[in-house]
Amino acid sequence: MSKYLIGITGASGVIYAWTLLKAFKNTGIETEVIVTDPAKKVWEQELGFEWTEVKRFVSKIYLEHEIDAPPASGTSNYSGMIVIPCSMATLSAIATGASRTLLQRSADVMLKEKKPLILVIRETPLSLIHIKNMEMCALAGATIFPAMPAFYLKPRSLQELVEGFVGRILNFLGVKHSLSKSWEQEYEKYQSTSYSED
Ligand SMILES: Cc1cc2nc3c(=O)[nH]c(=O)nc-3n(C[C@H](O)[C@H](O)[C@H](O)COP(=O)(O)O)c2cc1C
User: Fold this and answer.
1) Which atom of ligand 1 is nearest to 9's Cα?
2) How many domains does the chain have?
3) Which of 13, 43, 96, 169 is the most exposed place for a label (fewest CB within 10 A)?
4) Cβ proximity of 116 and 143 under 8 Å
């Protein structure tokens, strides 16, 4: 049975993490979560409720200073890790192998153990430093998965937009879900619809 590790950092877009954790719970796949201190602040600012609510969906919660926790070791049995959203600060720490916090160390472990590591980065515009850090992480085996939701599936709400994006992550991992339709499913509808300006 697979178990995923989810890292939540202080980048904007913690709603993606909340939606992903809920989706994993609905599929019956176990998740454990690591939350950074900045993530707690951004969470309360953006979502307006306590970050500790994640306890409804995850089997374990770790804080970033818990450097001796199981995810810090390559002997732990995770199918992969998703850092969502991933700040430029954490991206930089992963790119250099800094491993100073549990989240950074866990990402380092995923890379050295050749396990899937998805980095849902969020920043704009990007400096050359950000781009080079992404390049380094990609070369080391991570998947850079920018928080760039698609509009062609015509989301009718913010939640649908987020679910469409989170659905892409689950598709990438090969996890079956009912969050969003595929372009294949929407294509016929699209062909038979004519759009006017109003
Ligand atoms: C409201 C808010 C939004 C932020 N959004 C971003 C962001 O989108 N991307 C980013 O790289 N940093 C963002 N930051 C800055 C990070 O929180 C900051 O760099 C922090 O040190 C990241 O630490 P962490 O990666 O350990 O969570 C934001 C900060 C705040 C307070």
Assistant:
1) 27
2) 1
3) 96
4) yes
